[in-house]
Amino acid sequence: MKRHDLLGSEIPASDITPREVFEQRRALIRAAAAGAFGAALAPWFSRAAFAQTASPNPSAGKLAATVNRQFVVMDRPTAYKDVTGYNNFYEFGLDKADPAKHAHTLQTRPWTVSVEGLVARPKVYDIDELLKLASLEERVYRMRCVEGWSMVIPWIGIPLAELIRRVEPTGSAKYVEFFTLADKKQMPGVSVPILDWPYVEGLRLDEAMHPLTLLGFGLYGEVLPKQNGAPVRLVVPWKYGFKSAKSIVRIRFTDTQPKNSWAVSAPKEYGFYANVNPSVDHPRWSQDSEVRIGEGGGLFAPKRKTLMFNGYAEQVAAMYAGMDLRVNF
Amino acid sequence: MPRFAPFDALRLGVFCASLLPLARLVWLGAHDALTANPLEFVTRSTGTWALVFLCLTLSITPLRRLSGEPRWLKLRRMLGLYCFFYAVLHAALWVWIDRGLDPASMWQDVLKRPFITAGALAFVMLIPLAATSTHAMMRLLGRRWAQLHRLVYAIAIAAILHYVWHKAGKNDFGTVSIYAGVVATLLGVRVWWAIADRRRR
């Protein structure tokens, strides 16, 4: 049986590995290791192994984390070179290869994140303090870019809720606003008026508190590469990638809906919610399908069907009950 | 020997050189180097080269007029057909891979998205020009041939609109403004000369 047959192209909303399946797989892996069905099970074996496998980059700082099996999708993770070489991070240039080329100028230490606004305990956190806030988890999420491509990324981070609980939002806090660093000295793209810098993103408080929402510090077992939004970024897997702000320096709790950068720049094309939704098209392209980066077949790989809420409907759809997602795109 | 004049050597050179963009894509493909997103890369590359050949085709008439060398015309048909060639590859990727050969989804795309509408129009207008590019068709159509081939001006405008609208969402007008400037110049000199010629008469 081909690997593709086992995984399918249209994986249901919740293809999170159930515990018993995972345990069963461990047994199979042991069998595979023993050589019983070595060849047949090789794909499974290699998949289970990646979590423990360090990134192929020997100079990267390692980041120890425990795999959270509840949040591991079964899709094959995108190759490290693509995850770290094909990025949208306009502070370092417009081309997908620019961030990997130019982000080395970013200084990630010292780094602080100011948590402020409608909270009982505002605080300026040092990055190393944030890293110790809760035990680091590895989770494998799908990432769907609004441009119509997707990846599968083994992130390392903590639930954003861990931070939110500690600062105690007041009763009037309804939204959380995230600000990316905007320093012309470190970020050549900030001199180009593509967007009104700094980059701003926002979530509703319940979205920010959702167990899927991560504060990301690493990927592939290593400290976040600079082009991926070091030293700390947001990971919101059911929304288009631009919602997951990178290199965050300020988090503000407010009672009004934040004006996120892309929605300000092109209000007809990008909204506040930006939930992955195959039935609501972008004005310039359809969102019904996506190119999975690095998928076999190269140029001729057929596109995948895009899943509602990027396949996380079971976990998040309730938050949008009764809401017109065509209006709130 | 007299038949193989310098311009014939030039034609051969241009013919071979015009295949280099395709050769590069094939080479990159063979070495798994078409970036992380091959569909986007190859679509954009072939689109860009179609536009480059369109600009080259449009520059023949001004070159002839400025240099007083009529033999430039010998290159025009070939450059125009290369424009069509790269446009076919560009459009085929959209039809085949992006839209998965689904006519309904293509039609939706054309109706819904101005940049696709402009691109599709430009491509459709190229077809009759490519089809009537032979000597036989020139003879058959006579004066109407020149009238028909003025469509190339509309194609150039549609192609630029296609490109500008594609980039509009991100205010990323750096490269496209260069092409727009080139096309505006190539069309502008024709208008300028037309006015000047009329005055002289």
From TrEMBL, chain A:
Its EC number is 1.8.5.-. Keywords: Metal-binding, Molybdenum, Oxidoreductase, Signal. Its cofactor is Mo-molybdopterin. InterPro entries: MsrP, OxRdtase_Mopterin-bd_dom, OxRdtase_Mopterin-bd_sf, TAT_signal. SUPFAM superfamilies: Oxidoreductase molybdopterin-binding domain. Coiled coil: none annotated. It catalyses: L-methionyl-[protein] + a quinone + H2O = L-methionyl-(S)-S-oxide-[protein] + a quinol; L-methionyl-[protein] + a quinone + H2O = L-methionyl-(R)-S-oxide-[protein] + a quinol. Predicted to be exported by the Tat system. The position of the signal peptide cleavage has not been experimentally proven. Residues 107-262 form the Oxidoreductase molybdopterin-binding domain. Mo-molybdopterin binds at N87, Y90, E91, C145, T180, N228, R233, S244, A245, K246. Pfam families: Oxidored_molyb. GO terms for biological process: protein repair. Binds 1 Mo-molybdopterin (Mo-MPT) cofactor per subunit. One of its GO terms (molecular function) is metal ion binding. Belongs to the MsrP family. Part of the MsrPQ system that repairs oxidized periplasmic proteins containing methionine sulfoxide residues (Met-O), using respiratory chain electrons. Thus protects these proteins from oxidative-stress damage caused by reactive species of oxygen and chlorine generated by the host defense mechanisms. MsrPQ is essential for the maintenance of envelope integrity under bleach stress, rescuing a wide series of structurally unrelated periplasmic proteins from methionine oxidation. This is Protein-methionine-sulfoxide reductase catalytic subunit MsrP. It comes from Propionivibrio dicarboxylicus. The lineage of its organism: Bacteria, Pseudomonadati, Pseudomonadota, Betaproteobacteria, Rhodocyclales.
UniProtKB/TrEMBL annotation, chain B:
It holds the Pfam family Ferric_reduct. It is found in: Cell membrane; Membrane. One of its GO terms (biological process) is protein repair. It is a multi-pass membrane protein. The chain crosses the membrane at residues 12-29, 49-67, 79-97, 117-136, 148-165, 177-195. Keywords: Cell membrane, Electron transport, Flavoprotein, FMN, Heme, Iron, Membrane, Metal-binding, Transmembrane, Transmembrane helix, Transport. InterPro entries: Fe3_Rdtase_TM_dom, MsrQ-like. Its main location: membrane. GO terms for cellular component: plasma membrane. Residues 46-159 form the Ferric oxidoreductase domain. The keyword Membrane applies. Binds 1 heme b (iron(II)-protoporphyrin IX) group per subunit. Binds 1 FMN per subunit. Its cofactor is heme b; FMN. One of its GO terms (molecular function) is electron transfer activity. Belongs to the MsrQ family. Heterodimer of a catalytic subunit (MsrP) and a heme-binding subunit (MsrQ). Part of the MsrPQ system that repairs oxidized periplasmic proteins containing methionine sulfoxide residues (Met-O), using respiratory chain electrons. Thus protects these proteins from oxidative-stress damage caused by reactive species of oxygen and chlorine generated by the host defense mechanisms. MsrPQ is essential for the maintenance of envelope integrity under bleach stress, rescuing a wide series of structurally unrelated periplasmic proteins from methionine oxidation. This is Protein-methionine-sulfoxide reductase heme-binding subunit MsrQ.
